[in-house]
What does this fold into?
Amino acid sequence: MVKYLSLKAYGKVNLGLDVLRRREDGYHEVRMVMQTVGLYDKIDLFWREKPGVTIETNLYYLPANESNLAYRAAALLLEEFGIQSGVHIRLKKFIPVAAGMAGGSSDAAAVLYGVSRMFGLGLSLEELQRRGARLGADVPYCVMRGTVLCEGIGEILTPLPPMPQCQVLIAKPLVSVSTKSVYEKLRVDALTPEQHPDIDGMVDAIRQRDLMGVAARMGNVLESVTASEHPEIGIIRQLMLDSGAVNAMMSGSGPTVFGLFTSPRLAASAYEKMRYGAGSQLVRQVYLTNLFNRKSI
Ligand code: ATP
It folds into this structure.
């Protein structure tokens, strides 16, 4: 038994996001290339004698109860394994919330891993992924991490070779958006063939370690939905391109925009512009980070 664990829950960006169709049950069939980035939430896990889960977070507007995905991840394992003691979770958020970076899913993945270790449950990553799928479509990916092709509703995972390293500028606009409402507004039937990103071409480029080939194929069918309501997304994207990004795009259902840079110098000056210059009126959070490609949590 381990009495204390400190965990990092990394965020992701979508290098490509395509939606194939809406299923009868309302879920959407997707093809996405996901990439973990170096921006993370900090999670402290404390063993406690009293059974059950308690949680505290640094953000007043996040639920500090069973609605929090981190709470639900811990409760799921404590219940399944009939554990007679409990855990306290201290969650410090850095990943923008409701922003298309899978922050909640990543917290859940880290807590699944942490609780398994704390109580010596010995669950493999595959076993954690299976349980994660019950908490949310992105949780299995957040257990796996790295560069991954996600299909089905996001739960069918094919690990890819690590994407070549580069700088990633992340900018979260002032607004937040709900993933559900963006998918509801998407008219899959109305998409033209050109609007679908070339996911197969991107996967080939990743296999060939061709960063520019990946950048050339970046695309997100959800961007038109979110960006039509929030034009600042397009402005931020253009600012990143003008600052020397090899490409820039909205992540997931947004509104976070990220840009890839192959020059640390250009990336640093783009960060300055976004933080203090032309972009500063449009964004709430700005981070300059890297790709994160270490596999196990
Ligand atoms: P995705 O990229 O998977 O669509 P997201 O960035 O849109 O994720 P999250 O930040 O994961 O969204 O959270 C969305 C909602 O889930 C928030 O509005 C919040 O109230 C709720 N939530 C529950 N647990 C958490 C958590 N640990 N961190 C962030 N949000 C959480």
Residues 24 and 153 are 13 Å apart (CA to CA). The first strand starts at residue 4 and ends at 22.
